[in-house]
Amino acid sequence: MLKSRFFNKVEKFNGTFTQLEEHNRRWEKLYRQRWAHDKVVRTTHGVNCTGSCSWNVYVKQGVITWEHQATDYPSCGANIPGYEPRGCPRGASFSWYEYSPVRIKYPYIRGRLWKMWTAAKKDHENPIDAWASIVEDPVKEKEYKTARGKGGMVRVHRNEALEMISAALLYTIKTYGPDRIAGFTPIPAMSMLSFGSGVRFLSLIGGEVMSFYDWYADLPPASPQVWGEQTDVPESADWYNASYIIMWGSNIPLTRTPDAHFMTEVRYKGTKVVAVSPDYAENVKFADDWMAPEPGTDSGVAQGMTYVILNEFYQQQTVPYFEQYSKQYTDLPFFVDLTTSEANQDHVTAGRFVRISDLTSEKVSNSEWKTVIFDQNSHQFIAPNGTLGQQYDEGKKWNLELTTEDGQAIDPALSVEATGETSQAIIDFPAFSNEGNEVVQRHIPVKTVEFTDGTTHQIATVYDLMLAQYGIKRYEGDELAAKDETDATSAFTPAWQEKRTGVKADLVTQIAREFAQTAIDTNGKCMVIMGGGVNHWFNADMNYRTIINILMLCGCVGVQGGGWAHYVGQEKLRPQEGWANITFANDWEPGGFRQQQGTSWYYFATDQWRYEEMDNQAQYSPVYKGTHRYLNNADYTQMAIRLGWLPSYPEFDRNSLSFTKDYGTTDMQAISKHVVEELKNGKLHFAAEDPDAKQNQPKAFFLWRSNLFASSGKGAEYFMKHLLGAENGLLAKPNNRLKPQDMVWRDGDTTGKLDLVVDMDFRMVSTAMYSDIVLPAATWYEKEDLSSTDMHPFIHPFNKAISPMWESKSDWQHFKLLAKTFSEMAKKYYSEPVYDLKTQPLGHGTPGQVGQPMGAIKDWKKGECEPIPGKTMPSLKLVKRDYTQIYDKFIALGPNIMKTYAYDVQPQYNELKDILGSYDEGINADCPRLDEDKNVAEAILHMSTASNGKLADLAWKKKEARTGEPLEDIGRGHADDVMSFEKITAQPQEAYPTPIGTSAKHGGDRYSAFSLNIERKIPWETLTGREQFYLDHEIFLDFGEGLATFKPSLPPQVMGPADTDIKPADKEVTLRYMTPHGKWNIHTMYYDNLEMLTLFRGGPTVWMSPKDAEKIAVKDNDWVELYNRNGVVTARAVVSHRMPEGSLYMYHAQDNEIYEPLSTITGNRGGSHNAPTQIHVKPTHMVGGYGQLSYGWNYYGPTGNQRDLYANVRKLEKVNWNED
Amino acid sequence: MKIKAQIGMVLNLDKCIGCHTCSVTCKNTWTNRPGAEYMWFNNVETKPGVGYPKRWEDEEQYHGGWTLNAKGKLQLKAGSKLNKIALGKIFYNEDMPELDNYYEPWTYDYKTLFGKERKHQPVARPVSQITGKRMELTTGPNWDDDLAGSTEYVQQDPNMQKIESDIKKNFEQAFMVYLPRLCEHCLNAPCVASCPSGAMYKRDEDGIVLVDQERCRGWRFCMTGCPYKKVYFNWKTHKAEKCTFCYPRIEEGMPTVCAETCVGRIRYIGAMLYDADRVEEAASTADETKLYEAQLGLFLDPNDPEVVKQALADGISEEMIEAAQKSPIYRMAVKEKIAFPLHPEYRTMPMVWYIPPLSPVMSYFEGRDSIKNPEMIFPGIDQMRVPVEYLANLLTGGNVPAIKQALYKLAMMRLFMRAQTSGHDFDESKLKKVGLTASRAKSLYRLLAIAKYEDRF
């Protein structure tokens, strides 16, 4: 009988308020079943977020259900919080992609191209001819290129796609040369094999791969400038060792989500946290103090702080810790020659470093590369050990010991005043402003000396220069010095900066004092966490160097818990040597790869050079005039190319395979002679001199692991128009008022340069939509790969939670199959081996970096010197290529890998044969197999010092022998350890200490950049061998950047004088257009993810202040349209009082395939966040052949900065989708 | 005295980075299925702001939680059982939040991106997941994230409206707090009391509040009754659903998904023992500012031998008692009094507690001489951007001194630790004023900062 429950007797309590529920609870199994799963697989995401978090993916009945973070990282010890549970909401939503409607399941080809191809193949037996019949027919090529991005892709079989690609490649190689084939894939650390796959293929065939770190403007040029190091930073757990942290242009909770807790937690340890941000950003919530400078004025704030530190902690008192640090580890005691100021004949200005060659006529090796201090013990000028010159002295121990060769202690004088008799001079410094640059006059003590050439010179130390620049009062009655920090009339004081930055002088003074005092109390445990907010500017290096100056003055760099902590891009690939050798195919042809500088390549290939509005007048110093000035930055780039400062591929205006045939020789010397001759007499040109000529254009482009056309294509509409020939929103017109002098200017537009764009991706985003061939990539949960980052010290894997779905494959497998098809086609149609003449810039860390002494420009084209390959122009190299062997090489680890190590790795190579198996016959006989992804991972781990302790041990010994400093102990704990894929899958493994980094930390201590230099006295790879406040290359002095100084952001420009006329709107406001990284996406990744779109506003947005919104009568969530000469974006307004007036944020990487209406201005689809951006190359970033200012791929080169921009904003009155 | 055990949570808002990882991992594990699209068992709100559902704290609109009637007797704000029957309200519930109060879940016509060639580049546009029709987006579950649309939403925050002093929405005075929210698993759960079907219950062994999916009849009075609006209606199954405190994991000794995946490491889980016989009495405390303390009074000292004895007699397991003894929740909420319940004035006796956030100095306090006076290095409690009254409206029913005490304690702990790490002297008698000793300050520091996995869960 059914009993009514109301009459049941149940237990009551809490008076009668509560009763005990007695129903059965079997239903609870419902949620238990939901929770139940079959397996959990460790893998990660590869998205250049710098997180490199280990994730557990849950699988139920073969279906990926969800992901949670792994929590089993090795501990940081009992007194530091752990790394668990690294992750973020973006990563947590990844599983959505697996079965989502944006998933690319099959190979696709642009429908129109496919039709032409099938027809052409009927007419041509040879597929290479078939390809030629399309791309050499102007009507046909235009038809499929203009259709790019508009949909209409058709599904094809993979082998058909691979055949078309191979035909295009072979045609291009034969007709134009292999350097007309290019590839872009960024940030290897985020998925190392996947990066390596295409680069290995391209390196084997002779194509070029773009750099990315500089292109992204994530590279801080200041790092190579100051330290001769691409970037090295502490792991995030080292924040926990800091006692004072400034977050400067780095919005930690948003962009360092997994690491943010170290910052929030260290506050409880008593660490003060300061935020510097123009908006009330998410990280400001955690700060104790907040400085909100006007965007782009950060160097002003840093200079105000520097004034206080120099004045109160150097001039007014001697802090022994600071003094010792700056004498031993910085260039402050080094002497600089003072030359006549351009502004005033009676004044001096800072010139180049004094060299020992200036002061002694005795024969000293590499004397032009040895800079000079004054030793207070021996009372004489000497070149101390550790300079670049000593680095090249054979057989010498190269270190930073303050002793002479015979063991006498030396004591560098900080100031020239210690040298005895000195006098006083007036020195001019530049002070930059958008209202006109000024000359700052100061007193400086100088010593007059006679150089070996008989000329008389006034010299002073960098320390003297710094005190003079800041107007530190060294003598009573010095009317040129600042009165004190409240002196607003004296440049670079806190009061001076307030007028430029808007930050109160007393706050700047307070923070500076606290920072320095904390550094004294803790021996340097003060840290600045810095990032894109200050690095993405045209004058980013001024922001960075002024901040780094504070850190160096307070002895923080190289100290555990101190120094800079720059995190922009996942730059730290830990198992480096094995990875690089496989990636660039050094195992077959060491040095046969082409590593192109991304920014300059795009600058020419997308024709942005033709639209330059910026002449450099405002950037030049009023007190110094260099010998080589150009109005147009394209001319600077040309100079950089011909002097061997920057690489330039495509190389010449002829096929790089033609030289040996044309000259009838393979003798390198003979070829060099011919090339030099032809260059001199103008018969041979660099292709970059005429980038629009048909034979000089890039023809085929590979993209994988990237969404270049939206995410990182600065000047996206120039890409659309010139590179792709697609519909675009470009409003600018070529600027024929500012033509470069050293380039060919062609009237009329060159559009659609690329014949073939190949993309591999797992989601349909704009790059896939604008490509001609799309291959379905396996997701991060469907393949094996490796991951590492600078944020944490671990190496951990990607693993297959499930097999690749539909027809997807890993990138390694795709390129392997392409190599196979390509090689087979080559056997039929292009079987003879060829010689490829390769140019190469003067490389950092090679003898090329001592190619061009004294920082003086000598241009062979102007007859100032002879063109000498490898010294005054790019070096030349002959590479033998056999296109029939690409596949056999791709799938095997070649024996030449052993030549690339400075120690014997034969045992490790042999071990790999046993671990991976090897081939029986052919050119790869007895070589370890690289045909499977896991094999590649295993080979990388086995051949790298960070993951094979034996190799690290050998490398430390090598370095110990070179420097004479004991180092072997650092790696000793791991000498018998080696990582395997299985081991890192069981648990993330901490990378072994290796000399490829700059940390001396071991035994469980946190990775701390430059601690090797400080603790073990290893020189920096700079001209002085020290951290440099001063840079003396001619171009730096010309741009007023010898010492770091405030430079304003580029002046506002929305439209150029000759650009397209825009119909005026009733209400419009001009705002700074900035694209900081956002909260709901990592680049365009996750931007299309339904969960992330749901958690904010579901489409493109821009953030603006209530005041600005009011000016154009825009309310929250209204559609707006914003434009400048570069392009147009439509988006909805987010109105918030956390935004400062005058600035607009369009958070980075809002791709335009989601909810993006048409523009009323162009009538076309609104662009991505990159539509209003353009490339601004900076000449100082091009300098090469000079110490730390030498080219390295992703190490030095012009950045693709995109912050110095403005846009007009108006309400989008009519929202039109126009979907036919 | 009747001792019951309760699993509870503390969230340290001072560490919350507002990343929403908790929301996403929770959603993927529990509610990414038809009928549950709009459900976020766990969500994160930016305060000041309207939250999700919009203005959920406005109980004048939603009538959630409890109130005292004229006789001072505790009753549901939405009306008694009698009220439901007598007035026929069971068939018409005007207090019920509607879909628009949450948001209409959407997706996109992504397939367009693979479609035919068009005049312009194709785009994916939003489509409703309810109707399948195109829609324009005007609201969502986190629409006012990070002060987005503050011109519209900040003033609508009921906690702001309660503050008497003038708080300007301008750049110079901007402040915000992240508030992650889940079911409170209240000691005095109004949802359970509201359910006409008897489908909701509080588990005897751990206090987790659940909706029996077999017994639920879809009356939805739990949605009204819950002042936190943390019970949802699944429009496919026609049942109410809510946060289960991940009982399938808790039963296996694992923390909840939201807690384990919390990247800010702000969440702690632990057990509490309380006197279930005094819940009604405590919840009936007349003065709203005293409710927080009244709730504290319910918790029993798990190390008191008498309590242990009685607990065992009342059927509490040894494991649960041991868990209560080690409980970080007990330490932070009861012992150190740095964690507070969310809106105690709802008289629900909620069991998800929050540590209030510190915040930067207001601009008019800048430029202090912290070299001569090291205590000036951190913002004083009265100089902070987040108004203490705002936090009190959120966490103590307006009890400002309680919030200040907690912030003083956190600030003093920082100063003490700063002296330790920078080698400066520190007058330890200052710790006493905030109820700390040197060793207690150190262990509190470790709990908040070092916070290893096993210390949190």
UniProtKB/TrEMBL annotation, chain A:
<keyword id="KW-0004">4Fe-4S</keyword>
<dbReference type="Pfam" id="PF14710">
    <property type="entry name" value="Nitr_red_alph_N"/>
</dbReference>
<dbReference type="Pfam" id="PF01568">
    <property type="entry name" value="Molydop_binding"/>
</dbReference>
<dbReference type="InterPro" id="IPR006657">
    <property type="entry name" value="MoPterin_dinucl-bd_dom"/>
</dbReference>
<keyword id="KW-0479">Metal-binding</keyword>
<feature type="domain" description="4Fe-4S Mo/W bis-MGD-type">
    <location>
        <begin position="38"/>
        <end position="102"/>
    </location>
</feature>
<dbReference type="InterPro" id="IPR006656">
    <property type="entry name" value="Mopterin_OxRdtase"/>
</dbReference>
<dbReference type="InterPro" id="IPR037943">
    <property type="entry name" value="MopB_CT_Nitrate-R-NarG-like"/>
</dbReference>
<dbReference type="InterPro" id="IPR027467">
    <property type="entry name" value="MopterinOxRdtase_cofactor_BS"/>
</dbReference>
<keyword id="KW-0560">Oxidoreductase</keyword>
<dbReference type="GO" id="GO:0016491">
    <property type="term" value="F:oxidoreductase activity"/>
</dbReference>
<keyword id="KW-0411">Iron-sulfur</keyword>
<dbReference type="InterPro" id="IPR006468">
    <property type="entry name" value="NarG"/>
</dbReference>
<comment type="similarity">
    <text>Belongs to the prokaryotic molybdopterin-containing oxidoreductase family.</text>
</comment>
<dbReference type="InterPro" id="IPR050123">
    <property type="entry name" value="Prok_molybdopt-oxidoreductase"/>
</dbReference>
<keyword id="KW-0472">Membrane</keyword>
<dbReference type="InterPro" id="IPR009010">
    <property type="entry name" value="Asp_de-COase-like_dom_sf"/>
</dbReference>
<keyword id="KW-1003">Cell membrane</keyword>
<protein>
    <recommendedName>
        <fullName>nitrate reductase (quinone)</fullName>
        <ecNumber>1.7.5.1</ecNumber>
    </recommendedName>
</protein>
<dbReference type="InterPro" id="IPR044906">
    <property type="entry name" value="Nitr_red_alph_N_sf"/>
</dbReference>
<keyword id="KW-0408">Iron</keyword>
<keyword id="KW-0500">Molybdenum</keyword>
<dbReference type="Pfam" id="PF00384">
    <property type="entry name" value="Molybdopterin"/>
</dbReference>
<dbReference type="InterPro" id="IPR006963">
    <property type="entry name" value="Mopterin_OxRdtase_4Fe-4S_dom"/>
</dbReference>
<dbReference type="InterPro" id="IPR028189">
    <property type="entry name" value="Nitr_red_alph_N"/>
</dbReference>
